[in-house]
Design a protein that fits this description.
six-stranded parallel beta sheet; 47% helix; 3 domains; Helicase, Ruva Protein, domain 3; 14% strand; alpha/beta; two-stranded antiparallel sheet; disordered C terminus; Rossmann fold; single chain; binds adenosine-5'-diphosphate; 10 strands
């Protein structure tokens, strides 16, 4: 049960969110992959049910689209409780977070997405709410000001972040569970694609599901949008069934290449290789040249390129690997004209 949503979003974001919400697993048993995380959550959910006590605060971290919100929305269904949803950028002052805290019922869940973007004074305001289930509120001004301590119901805070390194130590310590979500295997993504195609009442062959999975950057949200696009293509250009040739044609049309990289990924690699001579270069210089926000590069573009070793990070900045050159159809440069240039400094 989702009670309140306060996440500012563009129209395009809203489309993505609607589609994601429709395809989102509702219970832990429906979650595909992340097996160790699912197991640990099953244990704490069972313990809470048996002891009839609220879940401890949980922090999920990992790149976008890997299931942080999914886990947060599955847990209230498992526990039979409600969830309020908001995000760090929407909470600019303690008064913004106060209604969520006072509305929280015993055992209910408050989900804060992008929790690393909470301003420091909101974060500090949350400390006593998380630890002692009370908040100190200042009433009046000047010499008439007085502080009252308001008790809260024992709620569970679930935080999600793409940058756990940006959370302060005191905030991190108040989460009793810290779960990191990693990229999915092709098999796991193929299962997600097949299950979601069924939900969309779209026939899909096993090879087609694997092909979409292979080209989805290890990320369920990307798999959903590739599936969605391929389905539209199949309906418009064929009989509505998704087969391997349909996937290949649809993804070629949307400029997703054989490794699953999209236009933005390739622009990143081309800029690193052609403008910065393969690096090392700082992410700020890359972002300025690409006319993109540093956060977009480090949260959305780089994690997958790093994982697949198209780039590596060194103390002096990002470096293109031989795989990046090969992918762009270029020869890796040589150091002194004989032998490949040292790319991994
Ligand atoms: P995040 O909050 O990490 O950005 P989401 O939880 O919004 O990612 O996931 C995006 C979409 O991907 C979900 O709506 C859901 O459809 C799908 N998804 C994510 N994780 C899983 C999973 N483990 N099993 C099945 N589908 C998933």
């Amino acid at each position: 049960m989702v009670r309140q949503v306060m996440v500012p979003a563009t129209a395009e974001d809203n489309d993505d969110k609607r589609r994601d919400a429709a395809l989102r697993p509702r219970f832990l048993r429906e979650v595909i992959g992340q097996k160790a995380v699912v197991k640990r959550l099953e244990i704490v959910v069972n313990a809470c049910k048996k002891n009839q006590e609220p879940l401890s605060h949980i922090l999920f971290d990992g790149p976008p689209g890997l299931g942080k919100t999914t886990f947060a929305t599955v847990l209230p269904n498992e526990l039979g409780t409600t969830i309020q949803m908001t995000s760090g950028p929407a909470l600019s002052k303690p008064a913004d977070v106060l209604p969520f805290l006072t509305n929280a019922t015993e055992g209910s869940i408050l989900f804060i997405d992008e929790i690393h973007r909470l301003p420091r004074w909101v974060e500090e305001f949350l400390y006593s709410a998380m630890e002692d289930f009370r908040v100190d509120i200042v009433l009046g001004e000047g010499i008439n000001a007085r502080t009252i301590s308001m008790p809260l119901k024992r709620f569970t805070l679930i935080g999600a972040t793409t940058r756990s390194g940006m959370l302060t130590g005191p905030m991190r310590d108040r989460f009793k569970m810290h779960e990191h979500l990693d990229f999915y295997s092709v098999d796991e993504l193929a299962e997600i694609v097949s299950v979601n195609a069924r939900k969309l009442q779209t026939p899909i062959t096993p090879e087609a599901a694997v092909e979409i999975a292979r080209r989805s950057r290890g990320t369920p949200r990307v798999a959903n949008s590739r599936l969605w696009w391929t389905r539209s293509y199949a309906i418009s250009e064929a009989n509505g069934s998704i087969t391997l040739p349909i996937v290949q044609a649809a993804l070629q049309m949307s400029e997703v290449d054989s490794a699953g990289l999209d236009k933005q990924d390739r622009r990143y690699l081309e800029t690193l290789v052609k403008v910065f001579d393969g690096g090392p270069t700082g992410v700020e210089a890359l972002a300025a040249t690409l006319n993109l926000a540093v956060d977009t590069l480090s949260d959305e573009v780089e994690p997958y390129l790093l994982r697949e070793q198209f780039i590596v990070r060194s103390p002096r900045g990002r470096l293109a690997t031989a795989r990046a050159y090969q992918h762009l159809g270029l020869h890796p440069p040589t150091a002194s004209g004989d032998g490949p240039r040292l790319l991994f400094e």
